Amino acid sequence: MSKKKWIIVAASILVVVAVAIAAGVVVYETNKIPYHAEIYNDIEDYMREEFIITHLTKEGFYTDKDGNEYSGDVSDPTDIVYFISNEQQFSEVFLQFPVEVDFDSEMIVVYMFSAYTRREMVIESITLNEETLIMSVKSKERRGYIPDCTAPHQRYFAIKMDKVNVKEVNVNGFSAINGGNTEGEEEKNDTTENKKIEEQDADIIELHTWHFTSGGWSNAIVLKYSDDRVVYECGADKGSFIVVGYSNTQPYEAVKRPIITMPGETIYWDHYEPDIKKVIDVDLAYADFILKLDNKIIGYAVIKITPEDGGYLVYNAEILKAKVFKNLLGQYTDVTEEYVTSLIEQVKAEN
Predict the structure, then answer these.
(1) Which of 62, 95, 279, 301 could pair with 204 as two cysteines, CB 3.0-4.6 Å apart?
(2) What is the Cα–Cα distance from 45 to 156, expressed in whole angstroms?
(3) What gap in Å lies between CA 327 and CA 197, rounded to an integer?
(4) Average pLDDT estimate for 336-342
(5) Distances (CA, A) of 207 to 54, 158, 219, 243, 317
(6) Other Cβ atoms within 10 Å of 48 Cβ, number
(7) Phi, psi for 87 (deg, rounded to 5)
(8) What distance in Å separates the CA atoms of residue 270 and residue 112, rounded to the nearest whole number?
């Protein structure tokens, strides 16, 4: 084959590959996230200051262009959703937007919430339930083992998408009506049926490397709930948790209850007892995890730890239960510490 033909063939292959890659990306995104939805992180620079100041979340904090500081009150909501479908509503919230928005065929959902990290947010799912659009968003998983928790602060992002004919938009269990949020809709949300607590299965923790490893930590517990505003309280009745990257001067630390940490972190169970500073033989142990949002309990998980047959100081783990509490509207439901403790003890007694 001549050199000219080789060049033509190579160029053709590159064109086909480029088209395939582009098509693959489009198809993948379309299949995964409908309505051509695009998310814009940390959008506050495009928003009107007066809107931000009057829509601060609990523990939210904002400094305006003149250096004046504003903070949310303890009575403020942890999350605010705003649903925009026309130019007038847009002008009340935004000075401008990163891209052009055609409100004849598109709309914007604004989500403001109290957060503990600066991780990028991504859309997990969008579904339509009659006249309610239900959206789930989450932060990208942290890479590596360096903790990235921050002081509580307020975050702002917007989702631009195809316009759908709905009366309500729900993001991570928090709702908004067209052109506003649902504050004051007590009559709708206070019914006995809507307040009914349901335990829903949740992807709260993940177990890996529960076997002997050389040169690394084993018995890993990955805290992986999709809502990065959640705080975990972790404890074990026997042994301890190894926290890697405990401080700048201390690469790891064995800690008893309670460990306070967040989604994206990894901790390691170990049969070392820091109180007596020695390794113990463990025939049966349990570790429990209580999830809190805004200091309210919204879920829990329990794992069972047993020694591996024939393995010296090698252990197995099993997730017995992982649940979050939500009502029929899909909103988090607060429960008492006594209630969740009784559920955890019941799980242990049955296993």
Answers:
(1) 301
(2) 10
(3) 5
(4) 84
(5) 43, 34, 7, 15, 7
(6) 14
(7) -65, -40
(8) 39
- The answer to whether residues 232 and 291 touch, using CB atoms and an 8 Å cutoff, is yes
Q: How many CB atoms lie within 10 A of CB 82?
A: 24
CA distance 152 to 229: 9
The arithmetic mean of pLDDT across residues 203-211, rounded, is 89
- Taking only Cα atoms into account, the Rg of the chain, rounded to an integer number of angstroms, comes to 24
pLDDT for 328 equals 58
Read off the amino acid at residue 171. Answer: V
For residue 124, the surrounding DSSP H or E stretch is strand 121-129
Q: How many CA atoms lie within 13 A of 178 on its CB side?
A: 12
CA-wise closest residue to 339 among 313, 300, 283, 307: 300
| pLDDT confidence band for 179 (50 / 70 / 90) | low
Helix (H, G, I), strand (E, B) or coil at 317: strand
- The percent of residues in the chain predicted with pLDDT above 70, rounded, is 74
Give CA–CA dist 304/237, Å, rounded: 11
Q: Percent of the chain having pLDDT more than 90?
A: 29
Which helix (H) or strand (E) segment holds residue 346: the answer is: helix 337-350
Q: Which amino acid, 32?
A: K
What is the Cα–Cα distance from 61 to 317, expressed in whole angstroms? 41
What DSSP character marks residue 272? E
pLDDT at residue number 192: 39
User: Burial of 162 by CB count in 10 Å (0-12 exposed, 13-18 middle, 19+ buried)?
Assistant: exposed
